[in-house]
């Protein structure tokens, strides 16, 4: 998921320059997917009236996150605290031995929203996602990484490898449908 970062700033503002550098550093240091937009408040009378000299003001995904100062670590912590998917990725896949029903309806839809990341729930039965890469070697390397995760978790997806693409299908075979473990595995793959 790419996070939208909007900077309300102005020219010749050393605090603004330092905050922008910290956000750009967070992209590299914490591998945060950010889309950064700079907005000069002096070019819009309404923004100038709203923020006066109180810049920079940094919004992340439409919510005010910081004023005046931010570090790369603070930004990463702020975003991660608000990413439910990360919480899913921190869980352990609990193997299903059967006897529980597959998830359906509202419960399934809510967990799918939490997962995000372009995963598709197909017929309330399985998760699917296609990852793209610039070449076969990177697709193969990714396949090996997610294979290692699957083995460590004891939960094994169907993986389809082709030039520049890796397709993944996940479901719990014992219940012939989706369980929380499937979403945990998907979140780990995204991470």
Structure overview:
- The chain is α+β, with helices and mostly antiparallel strands and 191 residues long.
- The protein has 7 helices and 8 strands.
- It is elongated.
- The chain has helices at residues 14-29, 45-51, 72-81, 84-90, 105-115, 136-153, 180-190, and strands spanning 3-9, 34-40, 57-60, 63-67, 120-122, 126-132, 158-162, 165-170.
- The longest helix has 18 residues, at 136-153.
- It is 42% helix and 23% strand.
- A hairpin with a 2-residue loop joins strand 7 and strand 8.
- The strands form 2 sheets. It has a 4-stranded mixed beta sheet with strand order 2-1-3-4, covered by helices on one side. A 4-stranded antiparallel beta sheet has the order 5-6-8-7, covered by helices on one side.
Short description:
This protein is of the alpha+beta class and 191 residues long. The chain is built from 7 helices and 8 strands.
Features:
four-stranded mixed β-sheet; 191 residues; 2 domains; Gyrase A, domain 2; four-stranded antiparallel β-sheet; 8 strands; elongated; Glutaredoxin
Break the fold down into its secondary structure elements and pairings.
Layout lengths: L2 E7 L4 H16 L4 E7 L4 H7 L5 E4 L2 E5 L4 H10 L2 H7 L14 H11 L4 E3 L3 E7 L3 H18 L4 E5 L2 E6 L9 H11 L1
Parallel strand pairs: 1-2
Antiparallel strand pairs: 1-3, 3-4, 5-6, 6-8, 7-8
Helix pairs in contact: 1-3, 4-7
